[in-house]
Amino acid sequence: MVDLNKYQKEAQLKDGTKVLLRPMVPEDQDALYEFFKEVPREESRYLRDDVGSRFVVEKWTKNLDYEKTLPILAVKDGIIIADTTLNRRRSGWKWHLGTVRIFVHKDYRNIGLGHLMIEELSDIAYKLKLEKLIVEIPVLNISKINAFTKAGFYRAALISNMVKDRENRPIDVVVMMKDIKPAHDDEYDYDF
């Protein structure tokens, strides 16, 4: 099991950049807001939340519940350069699933940071006994689809007009999944 309150990991990217991966804490509010202010308008149209809103960022940092949503940040020299989240339910018919979101600062793309963070979330998901990870990606975001494919995700569905961007235009979404751990029937003892 992973102790989410003590988790942190140092890593080196393909270009030699050293980063620290750690959970978001309430003190990250201002740095996270600064990170999301850098998101280009064209990209922010496709994000689930209005990340340019200080209120949204404040809500995230003040309502941390690692059992429900685990935000992992990549930090370089005290500056946030990527944010990813693992959302999960503790009960119900989706207890074994984790939903993933990720955003990498434009200056740190194509050097392995996104892949590193996806793999790290996969490792954490395994330790949390999740069986599958799911990500929803706008069909136009080919580079993100390719990054998740490279990290072992497969296309499970293409859903037309599933979401609407900030300008109310419908967007097709690719649903991708990754098997983390096979489903176990070990609670049942079948004698045939």
Q: What's the CATH first level of the domain at 9-131? A: Alpha Beta
Helical residue percent band: 10-25%
Terminal Cα span? 34 Å
- What is the CATH superfamily label of the domain at 9-131? Gcn5-related N-acetyltransferase (GNAT)
State the strand order across the main sheet: 1-2-3-4-5-6-8-7
Order of helices and strands: EEHHHEEEHEHEE
According to DSSP, the number of beta strands is 8
Mean pLDDT: 85
**Assigned CATH architecture of the domain at 9-131:** 3-Layer(aba) Sandwich
User: Major sheet, described briefly?
Assistant: 8 strands, mixed
Describe the protein's architecture and organization.
This protein is of the alpha+beta class and 192 residues long. It has a domain at 9-131: Gcn5-related N-acetyltransferase (GNAT) (Aminopeptidase), CATH 3.40.630. Helix content is 24%, strand content 33%. Strand 5, helix 4 (113-127) and strand 6 (132-138) form a beta-alpha-beta unit. Helix 1 packs antiparallel against helix 3 (54-62). The radius of gyration is 17 Å and the shape is globular.
Spell out the blueprint of helices and strands:
Elements: E1 9-12, E2 18-23, H1 29-37, H2 41-44, H3 54-62, E3 69-76, E4 79-88, E5 97-104, H4 113-127, E6 132-138, H5 142-150, E7 154-164, E8 170-179
Parallel strand pairs: 5-6
Antiparallel strand pairs: 1-2, 2-3, 3-4, 4-5, 6-8, 7-8
Helix pairs in contact: 1-3
